[in-house]
Amino acid sequence: MARPDVLTPQADDFPQWYQDVLAKAELAEGGPVRGTIVIRPWGYAIWERMQAEIDARIKAAGAQNAYFPLFIPESYFRKEAEHVAGFSPELAVVTHGGGKKLEEPVVVRPTSETVIDSFMARWIQSYRDLPLLVNQWANVVRWELRPRLFLRTTEFLWQEGHTAHATEEEARTYALRILRHVYEDFMVDVMSVPVLLGRKTDRERFAGATTTWTAEAMMRDAKALQMGTSHELGQGFAKAFGIVFLDESGQQRHVWQTSWGSSTRLMGALIMVHGDDNGLRLPPKLAPVQVVVLAVRTEDGAGEAAAAIGESLRSAGLRAELDVRTDLSFGRRVVAWELKGVPVRLEVGPRDLASGTVVLSRRDNNTKTNVRLDDVTREVVRVLAETEAGLLAEARQRREDRTVVVASLEEAEEASQSGFAIVPGSLLSENAGQGDGEQRLNAAGISVRALQRPDGTLPGAKEELSNLVAVVGRAY
């Protein structure tokens, strides 16, 4: 049952519902400087699980973690013209330090292509040094005009990968490997969030990249959110920073590069894809607590029984927590755990124990069943697996129901009011007879989220718009 006295219903005001969840589920709040964020322990525990899952996949792809400076000389950004033009409006620049004006201003890291490339130029000498695959977990600063917690903040946390390769084909293969086997795999198998993979248009690609590949998801309000991107950088940065190597024939060549990243924006996606009017609904793999054992009362052996159940669940490898705070009302404790999105709640009381059962409450569909004590662990494991698959299926069905194929820009504008529209790529070009179709959509508050082949597969990096379709919609 929804509780409008706790959270604003999604149907009434989705943005306010989102803010309510952030506060009531104790996920995050704004910092003292406009646009900054404080991530509270429950929110950070979820982020730590995201980090661990993504990091394992990055390492499986062969990249190693490193760390590079937060402060970058301003001159580094001037070396790649398109890059500096793209980031200039968002830069935070330090001009004074130690009470004195600096000889050269330094930029607070918005992304690290420039500083990492300056070191790659030192580290790479020959083909034997390639490929060079590094990743860093860090904070970055981009001066947002309209901040929103987790979605767009002045400072946020992320991982950013940077690689150098001997050939363009090798770089492209690796960029797509990250997109599929790191990002898509994590988002679908761990977050239970279906994503569309595609290529960004030239207008939407990363500043300084030759091609940007993207993973896009639909939120419960039918808006799109960019979940992660993987970029082919070509040789632009390599030429700007002198990253060269001797190939096997002794010829000096510039490397081909990629960069790729995902951030705490994934936390916003987790809330907006799975959350309901009772708060969060966490996929089991990301839940800091997968099952909470809630003692209704502690007398008549209920407290001891609850503790024993919790221990049994932990012995089975589940993340279980015992709640015996009987100084708080039972209803208040239930609401608190529902808000936090814990997948399973076991309610243990004297009356249930007398009949040899406990009450199992599922957060995904808000149903309750009586489970025999001997079957508790087995049943919890089954429910967690059902929850994971169910959340994914629900989100996928929602996206399919709100995606339509259209034949004109007018139809695309109408369809984007309530979901995604799939339009012929030819309508985006200036040769469509109506001017720049993408610009027209942008003026209506609609953006091209991804270019795909008509069968929904990834296009070639240079495949013509006329052969493709565009997934368009309103976005965060």
Describe the structure.
The chain is α+β, with helices and mostly antiparallel strands and 476 residues long. It folds into 3 domains: 14-274, BirA Bifunctional Protein, domain 2 (2-Layer Sandwich), CATH 3.30.930.10; 291-384, Anticodon-binding domain (Rossmann fold), CATH 3.40.50; 402-473, 2-Layer Sandwich (Translation Initiation Factor IF3), CATH 3.30.110. Helices cover 34% and strands 27% of the residues. The strands form 6 sheets. It has a 7-stranded mixed sheet with strand order 3-7-8-14-11-10-9, with helices on both faces. Helix 2 (41-60) packs across helix 6. The model has no long low-confidence stretch (mean pLDDT 95).
